[in-house]
From TrEMBL:
It holds the Pfam family Isochorismatase. One of its GO terms (molecular function) is hydrolase activity. It comes from the Eukaryota. This is Isochorismatase-like domain-containing protein. It comes from Talaromyces atroroseus. Keywords: Hydrolase. InterPro entries: Isochorismatase-like_dom, Isochorismatase-like_hydrls, Isochorismatase-like_sf. Gene3D superfamilies: Isochorismatase-like. Belongs to the isochorismatase family. Residues 5-180 form the Isochorismatase-like domain.
Amino acid sequence: MSDKTVFLVMDVQNGVIERVQNGEAYLERLAPVVQATREAGFKIVYIKTSFRPGYPEHHPHNTSTAKAFQWKAFGEDDSSSRIHAAVAPASQDVVVSKHRVSAFTSTDLDLILRSYGAQKLVLTGISTSGVVLSTVRQAADLDFRVTVLEDLCIDPDPENHEFLMKKIVTRQAEVTSSAEWLAGLKPTSS
């Protein structure tokens, strides 16, 4: 693996975990992979959804932000926007706040990745039909090579997850398991 690989943990925050089935089992799979990635010296970037007080980022035509606005969830200082403690960022990790589905839209993620010299992204997150799909598509358009760890992505609809991983995501990303990815993990030289 190249030291130009960055590992993304997307929307694994309290307010999302509590809304997905088998969230605890997901965290049990994700936590050791995050730790192994960190120990191997890879950069880790966390993506979370959060909004400023009063939700100025909410647009009435956007159905995704409408839910957060209606629930009054994912405020900057609200516990729902915090990364879940089971996979909490370390001091050297970066946390990017987003206000839309894609991890890139209206964030400084691209700037951070370019500053790291990133060429390849490894994606994990909730949900497959949301942040994962949107970020894969935009990352590919930005010329990143993308790997998606299928077992470290979940969706409220398991059939959507299966379909997207097998038919859609594979068009722009390599889809593999965390075990296969970890088997090829070599420490970085950063």
